[in-house]
Amino acid sequence: MNDREAILSPYGEGDGGTQHIREAIRTAIVERRLSPGTKLSESDVGSLFNVSRTLARAALQALSYEGLVRVERNRGAFVAYPSPEEARQIFAARQLVEPGILRQAAGNITSDDISRLKQLLADEGKLMNERGQTARRAEIKASGDFHLEISALSQNLVLHRFMEELIARSSLVIALYGRSTASSCGHNEHEHILECLAKNNIDAACQTMLHHIEHIEADLDLRERRGVSLKEAFEL
Ligand SMILES: [Zn+2]
Known about the structure:
By secondary structure, this protein is mainly alpha-helical.
């Protein structure tokens, strides 16, 4: 395992079997196969991953610390349903940390990394032109992966874990509040960031990253939605 692989899958063995459950559920959230509010029962998670309920509970608890799962007393665990305010905070956090991570990554990036990321963007581009759910999910995942590849290049495990959380939480927010069916990430902006990095123009790369995060947030409808009563729902 090289340094990059170690950062991309840092946990390895010895976590008592909960890590692969966490990653599988996190990926399902990123790909939007699991929607906000979905019930995650301990017994279903246990039988799906062939582990005890105790391990299933530990995995769900760990996901709740990441803000991806909400555990309710006597009701069990659910995929989180972020509020508009939480959504704003997630994007504010991304605005603060991602330029710093990018700067850090720029110091470590090699020409091989640039070629690999170019390939990732090319694959993402191809998926955008394909139809069907599977291609769509793979495309959503690929657009988040770009940000995670950058954070892996920062070679800072604390920041990388934080980014994994932020990308997964962003996916929940986009699933709930996204206005368009377009990709959550502007493909051209990823390309532009990479071009700037290739030219060692780090300030421009950071500036583009900030615009990029602004654009993702601008595509959300974060107005507070008040629940309607039964009576209001049936009023003509
Ligand atoms: Zn993006």
